[in-house]
Amino acid sequence: MTALKNDTFLRALQRQPTAYTPVWLMRQAGRYLPEYNQTRARAGDFLSLCKNPDLATEVTLQPLARFPLDAAILFSDILTVPDAMGLGLYFSQGEGPKFERPLREEWAIRDLAVPDPETHLRYVMDAVSQIRRALDNQVPLIGFSGSPFTLACYMIEGGSSQDFAQVKAMLYQRPELLHHILDVNARAVTAYLNAQIESGAQAVMIFDTWGGVLSHAAYHEFSLRYIERIVAGLKREHAGAAVPNIVFTKGGGHWLESIAATGCDAVGLDWTVDIGLARERVGAKVALQGNLDPAVLFAAPEVIRTEVARILERFGPGSGHVFNLGHGIAQHTPPDHVSALVEAVHQLSGKYHA
Hints:
Layout: H1 8-13, H2 34-43, H3 46-50, H4 53-66, E1 72-73, H5 80-84, E2 89-92, E3 96-99, H6 106-111, H7 117-120, H8 122-135, E4 141-146, H9 148-157, H10 165-173, H11 175-199, E5 203-208, H12 216-233, E6 237-238, E7 241-242, E8 245-249, H13 256-260, E9 266-268, H14 275-282, E10 287-292, H15 301-315, E11 321-325, H16 335-348
Parallel strand pairs: 1-4, 4-5, 5-8, 8-9, 9-10, 10-11
Antiparallel strand pairs: 2-3, 6-7
């Protein structure tokens, strides 16, 4: 297989020496880019965009045409998996994702089954393969999925939630039902990520967006336990190359040691965590990804540069850092400010890798 022209991101995830700190951004293909909005308008709606491999490829590549990023990430949505389980995903204007058939009845929970990614999620695999070809080995491609608990939050609530009342009621009153959902989700996510790897994803990331809403004990029992199962079941090599993985729990700063102990290659950090202290806690075990506050991108370029410098300095010299935001890019972020961020990371990080 042809070697990658820029493998800095993959090397950093494996804590190998790099010439500089690589950077990519969560939600780097999205609504802050005018070209994305034009493509989405052509698609008709968000879900149609996700399910069209040609258009998913187009929007995946758009930020790479603007910015010298060190990785591409598949354009898709974490809720494709429960959609493939038959829950009826749709998007309401201004309200986010919703499910027509949320999991509230015991019979529906017992009937939940693992979808075949090669059949029910074929459009995702086609997009991965197509994006890999289009990238032409310039930079690596990241595949991803939601964590079992995060998926369960949407599946039970029926959409986004302020308090996760339905999920937490099930967690404490009928924990065996939630465990059943999480077991099915864990098997589904493992199969889904492995199918992405076989289709061409060169790294994979697990987004545990809502794990941070749990208590200490509940996080370990209902979220991390299932992430650990997925990590253990992931393909670690494909086509002769290592396939590293990243685990990101938003609000998970209390549990970095536990996350690092799952066997993952890298831990994603949100912006509430000091990356220098995180490195002291777990940096001998895993790479770290993060963790600029996305709101910094609304500030002037010189402020962005200062904040980038601060994070690079806090991480310090050596390998094992992938620069990223602490969560996704906000919708109204000026694209020129993203340029300033990427430029600052590339210009300022070299001295830490000399």
